[in-house]
Amino acid sequence: MALRMTVQTLLVLQAFLRQPGRELYGLEISEETGLLPGTAYPILLRLENEGWVTSHWEDIDPHTEKRPPRRYYAFTASGAAQASAACAAARRPKRAALRRLAGESWAS
Amino acid sequence: MSQLMSQLTSYVDANRIPFVVVGIGMWALPLVALYLRLRSRRTAAGPHGSGSLMPHQAGELIPEAMRLAARLMPAASGQRWLAEAESFLFEATPEQRAEAIRDYLSTAPRMIGASWLSHLANRTRTTISGRSASSRPDTEDHANH
Q1: I need a surface site. Which of A61, B35, B88, B110 has the fewest CB within 10 A?
Q2: B48-80 burial: b if 16+ Cβ within 10 Å, else e
Q3: Rounded distance, CA B143 to CA A42, Å?
Q4: How many CA atoms lie within 13 A of B54 on its CB side?
Q5: Of the candidates A12, A16, A28, A31, which has an alpha carbon nearest to the alpha carbon of residue A75?
């Protein structure tokens, strides 16, 4: 099933694309995208189901680190390429919108 | 309880169970959504700052309504959702935490629906692949004969 490219999905992809090799966890993703975690989480799940990102629980001792483990997300090998293609496509103005704009300027 | 279940299953034809489940879901989900939305409005900044909490107490930051929402998801999805929420809320500031809890609760009904859909899709996929795998040796046998 094709991924629906909402503005929120694009924001999450752009956060990963800033440093494609980097792993991000919930709070970081939320801070980088401005999305709240309840909104970002289903997007991450969808991206993971589609094979664009992969995730894993951090292997730490919570008592030593004084915090619970984080779940880290990162692009898969194909995910980064697919994401940059999706972001580029989203930046391209839609043909219909251009035609409408051209029609309006022609009419005026 | 088991008596009630056996009575219920005797009324409902096994083939109709998926439709009954979807039917119940269609009625139950809006009610759950309404309940969670009301709870999220009442939820203030969360119990207290995480500064005084130890990691094993992170669960205390999760309001009861979120636990209820997690229980309505398939077990694995609910546990993962809660664990991620715990991890997030533990590291968030109190202001971020209040907003996050409201957001978790308002998106929970969609999460419940989506997690069940993906759970059912996975089960269907494994059933189909299991059937095709079990039927494959037969076809190979036929081919050999």
Answers
A1: A61
A2: eebeebebeebbbbbbebbeebbebbeeebbeb
A3: 46
A4: 4
A5: A16
Q: If you measure CA to CA, which chain B residue comes closest to A63?
A: B55
For residues A39-64, give the mean pLDDT.
94
Chain B: nearest CA to A95, how far in angstroms? 33
Task: From A19, A86, A26, select the one nearest A52 (Cα to Cα).
Answer: A86
ipTM for the complex? 0.81
Distance CA A9, CA A19 (A): 17
Q: What is the pTM of this model?
A: 0.71
What are the chain A neighbours of B100 within 8 Å (beta carbons)? 30, 36-38
A34: left (phi over 0), alpha (psi -120 to 50) or beta: left
